[in-house]
Amino acid sequence: MSTFKFFSILFLLVALLGSDAFAARSLRVLDAKDYGDDIERFYADCASEPVIVKNVYENHPLFSNLNPSIVEGLLSGIKLQTYKRSDENTGWKLFPVLAEAYFDEMRVGSQKYFILDQPLRGTPLEGQVEAPNVLKEDWLDSLKDAEGNPEFGLKITLSGKGSFTVFHEDGSGEQAWMYLVYGQKKWTIFPPSLRAALFDAQFKRFYDPRMSEAEKARYPFYQYIKDQAWEVTANGGDLILLPPGWVHQVDTSEESFGVGGNLVNGHQIDESVQTAMVERSHALKPDFSLEDLLTEVGLKRAKTPSEQEKLGVLLQQILIWRRSVQDKTTDQPLKL
Known about the structure:
The structure is a single chain. Helices cover 28% and strands 27% of the residues. By secondary structure, the protein is an alpha+beta fold. It folds into 2 domains: 3-265, Cupin (Jelly Rolls); 272-324, no CATH class. The strands form 2 sheets. Strands 1, 2, 3, 4, 5, 6, 7, 8, 9, 12, 13 and 14 form a 12-stranded mixed beta sheet that branches. Strands 10-11 form a two-stranded antiparallel ribbon. The radius of gyration is 20 Å and the shape is globular.
């Protein structure tokens, strides 16, 4: 047994034995009006756990009156980036489809397409929606594609009633947020300490309650943690913020429309680094180089010498870790 596998199992057993603190947890509710632009105090109150935030877009000129008919009209003629189930073995694949086809399918109750990561850019909503004040501090805004456009901009989620998103975590140590404009979604969330019970490292796949019994057998610890999830039902006007590494699945109980995004900043950088290192240990492909982001963006944006010192220590930890973790095939250090 490898050292990494031994400590992974040991860590999981410790988490399971000491996980009563997570049993039957509900998300705390914060009010955006209490914070204004005070990002520091907002993150201090988050305490590195998922939260619901109310009144984020209060009286927003677009969101205040948005409904399914208006959304359909706004997106008319636009080719949407959807996920389409190909078969049981290959799962979901990206598939571009005209908005009209998506809405026609949804009207007849079909779950043929799922729109989860449609960029806001290039739609009529572009320029009308910004990230909430408390989530505007984002190092990912420095990353551009070959055409100079943001790689990590805001995204649209469109979900028909009955839509289901399997357990997953947002990669590369990113925080994740979604503002539900209308509709209803039920979130089931597990903390990073219980991740190992939900992830099959061999097949690089998270637990899915719709799996066959043979597939579920690859997750023997799930039965011990399934009653310890954090659960919340989000309604129109709710924003959910997830720190790095929190595993979640989403059931859509009513037709829903939301806007969200991912971010990395210094307020939860410890959690970002820990999550990214776990993912790299499992040889998962990163969305970006966290090490480069720390060096080229984080250190430059640090507001105080103490923040710079903290980020410098994290960078050293990453370098030490990289030297200790080798790719068994190429005998080369894994890259963040």
